[in-house]
Amino acid sequence: MIEKGAVLPLFYLPPVEYFTELNIYNPDFVIEKHEHFPKQTYRNRANICSPDGLLTLTVPVVKGSKAHTAVKDVKISYDFDWQRLHWMSLQGCYRRSAYFEYYEDEFAIFYEVKEQYLFDMNEKLLHLLLNLLKIKATISYTHEYEAEYPHLKDLRMGFSSKKESLFPQKPYFQLFEDRHGFMKNLSIVDLLFNQGPQSINYL
Questions:
Q1: I want to staple 182 with a disulfide (CB 3.0 to 4.6 A). Which of 110, 124, 166, 171 is the partner?
Q2: Rounded to whole angstroms, how far apart are CA atoms 120 and 59?
Q3: Measuring CA to CA, which residue among 72, 83, 61, 3 is closest to residue 31?
Q4: Model-level pTM?
Q5: Residue 165 falls inside a structural domain
Q6: What tens-digit pLDDT sequence spans the chain (203 residues)?
Q7: Assigned domain for 202 exists
Q8: Contacts of 69 (CB under 8 A, 6+ apart)
Q9: How many domains does the chain have?
Q10: Other beta carbons within 10 Å of 172
Q11: Residue 182, domain extent
Q12: What is the 3-state secondary structure (H, E, C) of 21-53?
């Protein structure tokens, strides 16, 4: 059976591998909108490279957003100022990178505006990232939850934030590579802030 397209989850600042897959299946991919929210995934977390090694940024969600909440209905929690923490972390880790200042204003707004729903924030971030990466894509969404997609590559659980990715990735320059070596499959912002407009060629 030939898989002519793919069903992808919607992530917060997705890893590089996500955009490689999206590029492969573009324009024949759909974004999952009705799955139950799985915990501890890239749906509300992203990995970046810090001076001390891997740093995970997690978007807190409102308690009760557990296994039986549709991903489109998960609300972001603002019980503590995670936006300030994430933005300070991104600045601290990437301020010295070649292209951070080039993209800074585009990302800053996401840490000022308080979106109610995680899905809405991730969707806006995806549009921004596709635009910055110069990837032309029309995004369509699932209409209801389907357990299986026989004719599509099902990538909904295809990216693990907890296990090292088997994704074969060629190294690019990273800021703290001299300390930690090349760190695979970080958030796409790591590629963008280090490679800038060359990112699309890398993908």
A1: 171
A2: 13
A3: 72
A4: 0.92
A5: no
A6: 446 799 999 999 999 999 999 999 988 999 999 999 888 899 999 999 999 999 999 999 998 755 678 899 999 999 999 999 999 999 999 999 999 999 999 999 999 999 999 999 999 999 999 999 999 998 999 999 999 998 899 999 989 877 777 788 899 999 999 998 999 999 999 999 999 999 999 98
A7: no
A8: 36, 37
A9: 1
A10: 15
A11: 5-159+170-197
A12: HHHHHCCCEEECCCCECCCCCCCCEEEEEECCE
Q: Of 73, 65, 103, 76, which Cα lies nearest the Cα of 12? A: 76
Residue 203 inside a domain? The answer is no
Has residue 95 been placed in a domain? yes
At 7, which amino acid appears?
V
Q: How far is CA 61 from CA 53, 82, 137, in A?
A: 25, 11, 28
